[in-house]
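Review form for a predicted model. The reviewer records the input and the model, then writes brief findings.
Reviewer: anonymous (R2)
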Amino acid sequence: MSRSVVEAGGFRSLVFVRGVPATQDAPLAIFIEGDGVPWLGGREPNLDPTTSDPIALKLLAQTPPPAAYVTRPCYNDMGGRRCTPERWTMERYSDEVVSSMTETVRSTALQAQARTVVLVGYSGGGVLAVLIAERLDNVAAVVTVGANLDIDAWTQYHGFLPLTGSLNPAASTAVHRWPETHLYGAHDENVPPATTDAYFKRFPHAQRRLEANDHVCCWVEQWPELWKQLSATSAR
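Model under review:
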């Protein structure tokens, strides 16, 4: 797996690439990680929000190549002058973060000589996957796992502070021209499927699929079969 650092919009992201497309027509699956640990005890911003359990990276390891993993700005020791705690707390899905990651995804696909990408996001990474897809013209599909696609309903459900400065996919006015499948755990207490209802009313063609999982268990173990099913569906 190759490793590089991409700078875009004044932020840096790590990029891992596993394999290369056999042909330019083969899509590059790009994985985006969850929010990690933005807060300590729900009160103080964490100095390092990077997760110790990178589910999206584990999903990448279970995915046939070509595939890539793009870290979020300011995570994974990619700090910098612009990396204030607001970037991974209230502004975790801000225009600046989404713009930076969009350029990084575009650069990663170009480097891999892939004409199209499949964006795969876990948890909050799924929010970013949708927002990034809205800014690209080469998206073959979007897949999310446990994504809080209505950030207003999600923060209200948990009693969190509103994510001021962040973009809410459920309030987007963009046109989604790509197929999208959103996987949820029927026992997920972090992102209960009902908190995403507004998103699926806004985008009725989007598929919401329930599995007998929670927010963490057992996506990694089931991923090879899930990915096979998703790939077969998108190929039709």
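Findings: The chain has one domain: 2-38+50-234.
Further findings: The first strand starts at residue 2 and ends at 8.
Recommendation: see findings above.
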